[in-house]
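Q: Here's a chain of 436 amino acids. Please give me its 3D structure as tokens.
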Amino acid sequence: MKAEKAVGFSDPAFTENRDEPLHRWVPWVAGFSSAFVRDALRAYAGGPQRRRVLDPFAGVGTTLVEAALAGHEAIGFELNPYAALAARTKANAARVDLPAFQQAIASLQRASRRWGSRRPPAHLRPEGFRSRIPFFSESVLNQVLHALAYLERLPEPATADLFRLALGSVMVSFSNYTYEPSLGSRPAAGKELIEEADVAATLLAKLGEMSDDIAWAKAQAAAAASPGSATVHTGDFLTSDGVLPTASVDLVITSPPYLNNYHYVRNTRPQLFWLSFVATSEELKALEQANFGKYWQTVRIGPPVALECPHEGIRALLEELRETRVAEGAYGGPGWANYVASYFNDSWRFAQVLRQALRPGARAIVVIGNSIVQGINIPTDVLLGELAERAGLEVAERQVVREKRVGASITASSVRRGASRAALYEAALVIRSSLH
């Protein structure tokens, strides 16, 4: 590791964004804070020069929003189409036709007064969506269908996207499900079912918040020396050949999915189905299979997944895992070893594609946390840094930015238990491309 002057990064937790313009539009448990991104931009993309800033795992667009606000060219890749919609819409807020958007909000307010006296259009209910208990009560469902019908009638695509995002952002709040932090039924979390809710009022409040933030974004853009831009590719960065030119990126600020089996796709199932991003379980499964690192549920059964990256330390961890709770089969160490092998195979591909994307001397700021699998501490940040160096990059700095972390779904449950005294943390790796 070749040290350079340390940067004092802010807490990366996404919860810091809940009151910030644009960032507050969509709750997202797996994101990182806008303050962290601003720190990275000031340290590595300061000055008047316009830079190309990449987030290979864009999520709901925190990096892209901040890079565009700072006047840079922001590029993101995001596999989840709902998250990609959020990233694209937020990062381009300054380009929204605000009077047209506000007119559509006023029109929705008028139309919603008639929802109670009209039969909703049942054909908009997604046939492929399944849940253990009714996702919406009958009363709430009728209102949601009316809202979807209104969205369908919006003639301007950018305005329609804003309305779709607003509905996606609030729909779980009046459903019979809740995030704890993973999506589950309200009764399972000790909460009562929601029989009645004012869908229109909740949706209009979110749209009003978005309208205020769009006006703010326009003021920021008007005051900027040069306007920034943002492009979001709905797809996989690891297979982005031909989309992003080689050696074209000045700075990467990103946080890949952690090795914690947090199910990014299943946690957005309602939005994916109800906003018509997917129509069948097969389409949903395709997204799950393509996710970075896969999920334990998708790889646990079958022959051992071979490790493709050149790292004996990871290989030794896998051997230890495969010998843990062997009698449990796919639910014990052998199944989890498949997940860990899949994760580091994708990490190795990420390091290789990252090296191709970076300009000589450019940097990548990667936020990643360690994991505890079957009681075994896996220092994911350290191992990712070592894979990056094997791919021809340099780790200039490793900084622990959060010493306590919650929400690791694989540390303790009836099928995942193990004993470990290790603590969960998050670290920022500053990875540098060579000058040659």
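Q: Can you summarize the key feature?
A: The longest strand covers residues 358-369.
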